[in-house]
Design brief:
This is Secreted protein. The protein is mainly α. The protein has one domain (about 1-165). It has nine helices and no strands.
């Protein structure tokens, strides 16, 4: 976990956050959204540069248990809910940054969903957390499909069919 934490600490510090006392997930999201609010579509390039940096720093650790909720809980002494929110945020940001132009084209709506409809997105995180705890056959992938669909439904509801995954 040491390398993972070092990479994440650097990532969070890039946003001006204190890794020793990370803010609530909601405040973290507001920090990221403030970049796109201030810089517009070029703000996507800014937060994606942070995302690429942390992915490069982590290498194979990016898709390892070190980036799971339990690890965030251990590294940052977070609540279970916050650790799930932070840990599930990274794959979402990877997807966003791999589809930058799409993000830029729909930025205003996405920012609105992130800020104004956080409660709906949290339901998706809570559902996947429950589903993962209840896995009995070792299939830890299926709950993530439901998580993606849940978020897809939230964004489609507020941004229209053009954002459907």
């Amino acid at each position: 976990l040491q390398q993972t934490k070092a990479c994440l600490d650097s990532y969070f510090a890039g946003y001006g956050l204190n890794p020793a006392k990370l803010p609530s997930y909601t405040d973290y999201i507001h920090t990221i959204v403030s970049i796109t609010t201030h810089y517009g579509p070029s703000g996507v390039d800014i937060f994606c540069s942070y995302e690429v940096s942390v992915e490069n720093c982590l290498g194979n650790l990016f898709n390892s248990p070190c980036m799971a909720a339990a690890s965030f809980q251990e590294m940052y002494n977070m609540t279970t809910e916050e650790s799930w929110e932070y840990s599930t945020d990274f794959p979402v940001r990877t997807y966003m940054c791999n589809n930058k132009q799409f993000m830029k084209d729909n930025l205003a709506c996405f920012d609105d969903v992130i800020v104004s409809h956080l409660d709906e997105r949290k339901k998706c995180s809570s559902a996947v957390e429950t589903a993962l705890k209840n896995v009995k056959d070792g299939d830890y992938c299926s709950p993530w499909g439901d998580f993606v669909k849940c978020n897809d439904d939230v964004y489609t509801k507020h941004c229209g069919q053009q954002v459907k995954g």
